[in-house]
Each structure stands twice: as C-alpha cells, then as structure tokens.
C-alpha cells in the first residue's frame, strides 16, 4: 500500500535536487553552520601541518566521547524500529545494523590515530573531558534518547557524518598533515581520516533519504523545524568543541583544570 505522501527517490542519491523542496531548503539553511565546522581554523591548521601539538592532542582526546558513543546512538535509534512498519523504518533498520558494524573499526582507527599523535590513551579513555567538548556527546545522547527516529538520525548520521566527511577531506586534500607521521606508521595513523575523507561518501545522503522517507513528502512545519534545529545544533556543538581547543593555551589549561576539579 502506497500513500500519496510517500517519498520515493527518482533522481541521484547524492544530489539535493532529488529531494522535496522543503528538504532542499532545510539543507541549504543548515549548510551555513556546517561550513563553520568544515572551514574551522583548527582544521585549516591541521591541514597545513601547523597545529600546535598540545591542541592537536587535546582535540583527539576531546573527540573521543562521540567516537566511543556513535554506535550507541545508532543502537538507540535501532530500538525505535519495528520490522515491516513502513519503507522508512525498513531502510533505517538496514542502514543502522550495517553501519554499527562499520563503526566498530572506526573506534580502533581513532585510537591508532591518537596513539601515533602522542595522546595518552588511558587518560583519553578515562579522563573527564572539558565541559565545552562534552556538550556534543551529551546533545547526541539526548536527541537519540528523546526524539523521533528521523530527528535523531538527522542530528547524528546526517549532520555529524556529513560535516565529518567534509572536514576530513579538507585535512587530507594535501599531504602536509600526513607527512608529519613517520612513514612506517603513516597509513595506520591516517586510516580514520582517509576512511571518512571521501567526497563521494554516500552515508549522509543515505541518512537523508531515510529521513525524508520516514517523514514523507509533506511533513508538518513542526517536523521540518525539529529536523532543521537538530541538524544545526549538531553543527553548532561541533563548532563549540573546535572553538574550545583554539582558545589561548592559558585559558584552555584553566578550563581543563576546572573540568577535572
Ligand atoms: C568533530 C569532533 C568536531 C568529533 C568527530 C565525530 C565524528 C564521528 C564519525 C562517526 O563515523 C564515528 C566514528 O567513529 O567514525
Ligand atoms: Fe565513522
């Protein structure tokens, strides 16, 4: 049974024009926040191999909670699904089960990246992280726990994966950063970045297709607003994390002490 508001994509997966007009507007509205992540000075300095060592290590450590929890966000969303309850739910079920498995390896690759960058892994795994950087993981947990499947996937699989595909591609767009690592460990250290740095990565688009299939061709204004706010919030929390690490060193030290107190 097919209802008239059901979205069935006919155009290419990775073109925004293949989606309803409300989706195109939403994507466009959120892109401004995404750019602030992708173009962030921390990533510029990383790409140009001039990011201060302490900031580099602090970033890798501070990013860890989201890496650790990412499959759990997907698991929380998987719990919202019942088989055979519609095309959107069936697509989401396949996507989530498959990608939870993929993210298993990504956590290992992040740990390798951090290890080769000189991060103290035990403190990365067990330290309390700065409040500003914890906001991103807390937000993701909250949205996946409390909001609908569509809104939660928009905040995580669409917004975070989407921005990450672009910032990692930016860092990998030249060899300068990769060349900071000794040749013997370079491939291992760069694996996480390389895997995410694909301009042709279909994952965020697959998530978008699922979201639109879940809410249909004509969702309420309230639903659209919720989706848009969730996406923009994820981008803003990512930016907050990056801004935190780019603050002057003294302030960063002070804040970290505050978080540990
Ligand atoms: C960015 C810091 C400002 C956190 C990056 C989070 C990226 C999550 C990517 C997702 O695929 C999980 C993973 O471990 O690869
Ligand atoms: Fe990943």
Question: Notable features of this structure?
Answer:
single chain; 261 residues; mainly alpha; Heme Oxygenase, Chain A; 11 helices; binds (3R)-3-hydroxydodecanoic acid; binds fe (iii) ion; Iron-containing redox enzyme family protein; Haem_Oase-like_multi-hlx
How does this model look, in words?
- By secondary structure, this protein is mostly helical.
- It has a single domain (41-260), classed as Heme oxygenase-like (Heme Oxygenase, Chain A).
- 73% of the residues lie in helices and 0% in strands.
- It is built from eleven helices and no strands.
- The longest helix is centred in the middle third of the chain and has 30 residues, at 87-116.
- The radius of gyration is 19 Å and the shape is globular.
- It starts with 20 loop residues before the first helix and ends with a helix.
- The structure holds (3R)-3-hydroxydodecanoic acid and fe (iii) ion.
Work out the strand percent.
under 5%
**Unreliable spans:** 257-261
Alpha-beta classification: mainly alpha
Bound molecules: (3R)-3-hydroxydodecanoic acid, fe (iii) ion
Short description:
This protein has 261 residues and is mostly helical. It has eleven helices and no strands. α2 (41-47) runs parallel beside α7 (149-171) and α4 runs antiparallel to α8.
Which secondary structure elements does this structure contain, and how are they paired or packed?
Layout: H1 21-38, H2 41-47, H3 53-78, H4 87-116, H5 121-126, H6 131-146, H7 149-171, H8 183-196, H9 203-215, H10 221-245, H11 249-260
Helix pairs in contact: 1-7, 1-10, 2-7, 3-4, 3-6, 3-7, 4-8, 4-9, 6-7, 6-10, 7-9, 7-10
The chain binds (3R)-3-hydroxydodecanoic acid and fe (iii) ion.
InterPro entries: Haem_Oase-like_multi-hlx
Pfam families: Haem_oxygenas_2
Protein name: Iron-containing redox enzyme family protein
